[in-house]
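Hi R.,

Here's the chain you asked about this morning:
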Amino acid sequence: MIRIVALGDSTTNCVKKAGVTEATAWRTLLAADLAKRLKRPVEAINAGVDADVAPLALKRLERDVLARKPDWVVVMLGTNDAGFFRPPNGVADTPRVSLEEFEKTMREIIQQVRKAGAGVVLCTSVPMSGHYGLRDLPAYQQNGLNYLVKQYAEVTRRLARELGLPLAEVHEAFEKHAQRDAFIPDGIHPNAEGQRLIADTILPVLERALAEAAPHK
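And the predicted structure, written out as tokens:
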């Protein structure tokens, strides 16, 4: 059995958003596809929490991730960290988490996961689509809807390069896709087609990482 824990926010939790079910969630698709390719059982556990940011994910890392003894942890954070939205209903003029704090926290998450003996796959986060409810904020109108999300995705890329970690370019996969807005109908949560795109983007990265890595257990 290969055990994968998916750590992230609502785009990892994903069920009951944009019509997604457990059967169509990217982590479910990823586990099924990986099991077929490897011809061995794969379990994917959800550790995504709605509205989460990296510092909150770090606080629950032991309980929600490490306690489950994963072989691999797939980390996809950044969209909420970069956002002006303040749960439950507020809006601010600064990101929820600064770039510096995001990088520092991501480093700590990676360090703790590796120390526990699990592999790490980093994912750049899902971009917002043109349906996003706050798309008319002046900063977005002036700089582009995903100008901040792109900066946080670049931190994730840089950490992957620096630390020698596998990277799944989820952000680019959506940005380059002609159906980006259709795949993210509420502005932030991918639908079933978007879930398929995420799974298809992570699958070859994780499969390659498994082939290259020594056994973790």
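The mean pLDDT is 96.

Let me know if you need anything else.
M.
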